[in-house]
Protein 1
Amino acid sequence: MEFETETVESGNPAKAKINFKTGEVEFEGSEQFVSNQLAAIDAIAEYMALLITNDYKDDSDSIEEEEMAAVAEEEEEKLVIAGEQDLDMPDNFGEWFHGFRDNVNDLDKALLTAYYEQKQSPENDFKTSAVNQSLQEHGIKLSNPSSSLKRLAAKKLLFQTRKVGKLKYMRVSADGVKYLKTLRS
């Protein structure tokens, strides 16, 4: 983002140019104009530092966070009704995975793995990379695990709980838990 302004003081052109990406500040013009701009340089530097350190939050980010929190709270209530506690979680993934039917498809495998990873997490959510890694470690081949998780989210079997930079954290929804129960062998 770049900000540029030009003024004409008593016939002398003046110019202030600020490049927020590179942190460059440039002033041209009369001595009075430059000194006035330099007096405000601290405020400009603070604003630029705020942008660079990413402490600046867009209103849409806070709205998105509030929406994710509301969905998570609503899903917690639904999970009690869905009887999530009925899904016993063994200590290892192999036991968990083999407690389900043999004819599960790729989406089901992704959901089973996502739920297991979620329950292993202290925050009770998972990252796509954790699901990918778990599938690979256990020799389970899916054509595109990330795509499978996106499709599960579109079916409302997963939902996003938080976002850190570009990294999204997700959780299995109450509908996802109900569906997992139908896959039991």
Protein 2
Amino acid sequence: MNFLSINMNDFTAFIELLKSQGKVQVLSSPRVSTVNNQKAVIKVGTDEFFVTDVETDTNTTLNTTNQSVNVELTPFFSGVALDVIPQISAEGDVILHIHPTVSEVSERTKSISVSTETSLEIPLALSSIRESDTIIRARSGQIVVIGGLMKDQQTNDVAKTPGLGDVPMFGKLFQHQRERKTKSELVILLRPIVTSGSGGNAWNEQVRQSAERIGRMQSPRPDTTRR
């Protein structure tokens, strides 16, 4: 994982710099407040429930056997989570303990035998996690950039001639397969601001201005094409 501290007033300039290197998508722009040495947590994603335990009970009465199945479900988080613990030094700098996590959960079906004649198809969770842990030191108002959480993805695209590409036996002659590889990187921008007393009003104003700037960047640009 890589990180650096930069002297900028807001995130907009650095996001524009990232756009010059490739496609950029802003996943979230949350703001949280906490106190010294207390954890702040940010989570952007969804929880999905998967089976984590299966119990079967068998009861036999009057030559009759009854079976019951108890299924336990557990939530699995998919998305981006960020834990930050700030510590303010005597010089007024902020020491940040940062723990970002990127998790992706997919479904995998497994067959479980309940009895000699009965089986269950259970949807299980297959989790992929990318995480890191670091401690950095920054000044109040300074932007911290964290990167290095990479992801490689490979997809196969199939292009075919309409109609002819679906002909049995000979359809593959009119098809073209293309392998596409993409690489993405999660970049986290943090800006710790130390506030005390009336300084909270200034912080709220800075948050409002930053939200407006990022909102304008995410808004679609007007079509200027002459018709």
Protein 3
Amino acid sequence: MSALNYDEIFEEWRKVYLTGDYEDWSVVIEEGINKDFAAIALFLDNKTAKASGESTDYYDGFKKASLQVLDLLEILITEEPEEKIIRITKKESTRVRDQKLAKEIWG
């Protein structure tokens, strides 16, 4: 597998998202986020946007798959309109959350 080029992937994503009303927004990657994972998140976000022009079934399937990959990587992309920031942040995956819940319930 070739190395991920974050800058290249970011540039492709930026061309789609940081335009118009979002032109003066910035992207913040929280400390502790693996830069390759951030690149994957932006890549999937970009491809999901492009898939929106396809059939509804295709788009829905692609969006669901993308969200599952981001959940596995424990990453979330959020917008903070007041600060004009798009943040790539950590989140607890549903898999980990379910394991904790099961342990709480059944010990």
